[in-house]
Amino acid sequence: MANYPSKLFEQAVNEFAKLPGIGRKSAVRMVLYLLREDADTAELLGNTIVKLRQEIRYCHQCYNITETESCDICANPKRDPSLICVVEDIRDVIAVENTNQYTGVYHVLGGIISPIDGIGPNDLNIVPLLNRLATGVCKEVILALPATIEGDTTSFFLYKKLSAFPINVSSIARGISFGDELEYADEVTLGRSIVNRTPYQGAGQ
Length: 205
What we know:
Blueprint: H1 7-16, H2 24-36, H3 39-55, E1 57-58, E2 65-66, E3 80-87, H4 90-97, E4 104-108, H5 126-133, E5 140-143, H6 149-162, E6 168-171, H7 187-195, E7 198-199
Parallel strand pairs: 3-4, 3-5, 5-6
Antiparallel strand pairs: 1-2, 6-7
Helix pairs in contact: 1-2
């Protein structure tokens, strides 16, 4: 167990080390950085984190993050509501938006089906998606889920549910290598995979 110069310093390191991808050495560097900066910098960071937890909510329609009832994408009249891109989480929305190739809207599932992690269909935002389709506005759903066993399982489950609606179901082009997670794809490659999307072909079809 490392020895730290003060209890407050140790507590701060412990909290930073809880963040994804942050080890204890990185946490120590972050705490030392804040100590070197003026008090206003640390106060701004603290206030921003508090406001983030207090004011950020989920869009009532697509489950993207927002500070109002509807996210900026759903509220934008220039976006095409007849085209819905289904993604695993918020990081994927950011990744697709960075391509500047997509003009439709999104639906964030909040995860993918993973029995080993105890995540089933009822744990995801699937029913709200079906409710959106029931309005008749949507004409195409793009399945943009990870190219993993869990992602493919989720896509196939959704395809079976979506077959009850008179819509086209497509998936981002798998012939283009983009990795297992959309957030790690470069913008050009991911943009092409959306533009060159193909009719969904799931296992068992």
